[in-house]
Write a structure and sequence with these properties.
By secondary structure, this protein is of the alpha+beta class. The chain is built from 7 helices and 4 strands. It has helices spanning about 5-20, 50-60, 80-90, 100-110, 120-130, 130-135, 145-155; strands at about 20-30, 35-45, 65-70, 75-80.
Length: about 160
């Protein structure tokens, strides 16, 4: 992650407010201690015609990857924890619309690193559920109720 010039930080914050998203998904994955992977990311969107803008963003920020979707949209996704933390710290003063999502992301990232008990994990899952009120989550199905029921069913404690 690069250190951003003040103008770049303000520009990236505005871009994220307008054409980006901050979210955390719970992905079923038996390889993880509690059968779910906490998958946070920051995504910037553009039409494929605006791909050069996303390439420039990636160059300025210094991390992430670009994916071309089949629907004519390009996504620049940042999923690395350190890069997300550094980016949010630098753009937070300039965020307007996504300030709450950014604060929630920072809370989740801080708590997810040291999860040792089911109770701690479920507290983070409840935090992640807060995105329902902040984002337009149409397809979110792995929520606190589903995860806690699944953990109870599997009797997974560690």
């Amino acid at each position: 992650m690069n250190v951003l010039a003040e103008t770049d930080a303000a520009y990236i914050a505005g871009f994220l407010d307008g054409d980006g998203s901050i979210n955390v998904r719970l992905k079923p994955n038996k390889a993880y201690r509690f059968d779910f992977q906490i998958a946070p990311n920051i995504v910037f969107y553009q039409s494929k015609k605006g791909l050069s803008v996303l390439n420039r963003l990636m160059e300025i920020i210094g991390g992430g990857k670009i994916r071309l979707r089949n629907d004519g949209i390009a996504e620049y996704t940042i999923g690395d924890t350190d890069t997300m933390i550094n980016l949010i710290n630098q753009i937070m003063p300039y965020l307007i619309l996504k300030k709450d999502q950014a604060s929630l992301l920072m809370a989740v990232l801080k708590r997810k690193e040291n999860l040792t008990t089911k109770k701690e994990f479920l507290k983070v899952v409840k935090l992640i559920d807060s995105y329902k009120q902040l984002n337009y989550s149409k397809r979110r199905k792995n929520d606190f109720n589903l995860v806690s029921a699944q953990l109870e069913q599997s009797k997974k404690e560690v």
